[in-house]
Amino acid sequence: MSNLTVVSAPGKVLLTGGYLILDRKYDGIVVGTSARFYTVIFSGKNGKMCVYSPQFVDGEWEYRVSWKSLKDVGIYSCELESTNPERHNSFVEITIKYSLSIISRRKNDQQFKEIVAKGLDIYIVGDNDFYSQREQLRKKNLPLTFSSLKSLEPFCKVHCTLKKVNKTGLGSSAALITSLVSALFVHFEIISNKITETTNNDRKLIHNIAQFCHCLAQGKVGSGFDVSAAIWGSHIYKRFSPNILKDVMDQTVDISILNNIIDPTSSIWDNQVTSFSLPLGFKLLLADIDAGSHTPSMVGKVLKWRKENADQANTIWDTLASHNTTISNNLRELTKNHEQDEELYLNAIKICESVKASEWALAAERNPNNNNIALFSATFNTFQKIRELLREMSELSQVPIEPPKQTKLLDACNEIPGIIMAGVPGAGGYDAIFCIGLGNTFSSQIEKLWDSWEEMSVGPLLSRESSKGYMIEQINNIPGLSGCLNL
Ligand SMILES: Nc1ncnc2c1ncn2[C@@H]1O[C@H](COP(=O)(O)OP(=O)(O)OP(=O)(O)O)[C@@H](O)[C@H]1O
Ligand SMILES: C[C@@](O)(CCOP(=O)(O)O)CC(=O)O
């Protein structure tokens, strides 16, 4: 068994399917981000389970591990007792407790008990993009730009506690839980430590446990798209039936029952992961807006409105779903076109990157033999229809999903040549925006627009799309990782 394990998991952006994906009838496009969480595990020495999040003030938790024997012979449940009861991180505690309990069920041997008895040192860090870097830049007298962000050291300290930190909406808790579960399962050799040997059942096992831990930590069974993105990277997501986890959402759950539920061969899991990634030449840019919205209360209000206005809501939901499907079909067709005729495809990118999307229909007429241009134009128009419907939802439910201030900013983004989709990710609100552009020339113009935008503070993020799910890493291949652990 190796003394050192490093596993990373990506953040997420939900491009289509906000609110709809809570319902198993609908799906949505989720993309993985290049921003990742890293869990590093060392075999310990002092018999304790020590967890360090060096980016945070007070980011240290220490636990004594004990085993509670359950009714069947050889079944143990792991108990963690904090050595400082005033400090808690329930996301981390729940994840370690249930991961070790399930590992013990699957690896009930002497070696496992000896390793746990020695203790573990666990380090958890997230790429800078997961947390707002506004304060760090202000302290350094740097403007809020891509190049200032690039000048910050990797995994930089945020000078506050986890409770106070401003998050950017990339799904820190899902990426953290996924990287922690997978690192523990790799460390104890339940799944292979070689990414090339990772099987689909390994991913399903980690997925099922991470969904359970995330739901228990959040106190509710959500749609789970963020954990799914942390496991599989970009894909088209259809949720699991909430009933799968409803009855085990309890800290006193019987581990043998839980162990059966999370088993990758169990037929109860009905989530669907359809492979997807952005076509070649598409580039995702993200920004967090210094305003903020409270997602859970937005979701609650939208769902209440839907329940009370079922007919009207179902028409909007179904129309949105059909537009969302058009977007994923178009993008998948573009990927196929690129594979079949690269020259023609690249020529379409070249033509469209220097023209505003509202003029692509004309360009398509002028180039009737290049149907990629017509597909770009149709994708832009369909996404505009999706935005219209989201604004209608906003008005009807009185929830600011695409509020007027965001509309103004997104419309301005669409005026830049090459932009094919500009929208509010996930639940929407004032939190964030995304832009997807063709080619390379649009990035600098978007940066100028965001920098000069006066109505709201638009903070660019460095993340791009990265279609990969969780990864087993070598510590020295990740710039800045070993440095930030103060080893
Ligand atoms: N670096 C970290 N180390 C340890 N725990 C962390 C870290 N980052 C996040 N967490 C855990 O995740 C919790 C935040 O979860 P929450 O569900 O509120 O965020 P989120 O919705 O995933 O946020 P966002 O999508 O904006 O990143 C924290 O309270 C903490 O328990
Ligand atoms: C509104 C919803 O569908 C998406 C929320 O997405 P985000 O956390 O705002 O990225 C809720 C959910 O699926 O958890």
From TrEMBL:
A molecular function (GO) term: phosphomevalonate kinase activity
Entry keyword set: ATP-binding, Kinase, Lipid biosynthesis, Lipid metabolism, Nucleotide-binding, Steroid biosynthesis, Steroid metabolism, Transferase
Pfam families hit by this protein: GHMP_kinases_C (PF08544), GHMP_kinases_N (PF00288)
One GO process term, biological-process aspect: ergosterol biosynthetic process
One of the record's GO cellular component terms: peroxisome
Similarity section: Belongs to the GHMP kinase family. Mevalonate kinase subfamily.
Pathway: Isoprenoid biosynthesis; isopentenyl diphosphate biosynthesis via mevalonate pathway; isopentenyl diphosphate from (R)-mevalonate: step 2/3
Keyword Oxidoreductase: no
Domain GHMP kinase N-terminal: 166-233
Reaction(s) this enzyme catalyzes, per UniProt: (R)-5-phosphomevalonate + ATP = (R)-5-diphosphomevalonate + ADP
Transferase is among the record's keywords: yes
EC number: 2.7.4.2
GHMP kinase C-terminal domain span: 381-437
Matching SUPFAM superfamilies: Ribosomal protein S5 domain 2-like (SSF54211)
Enzyme class of the recorded protein, top EC level: transferase
Superkingdom, natural source: Eukaryota
Record's protein name: Phosphomevalonate kinase
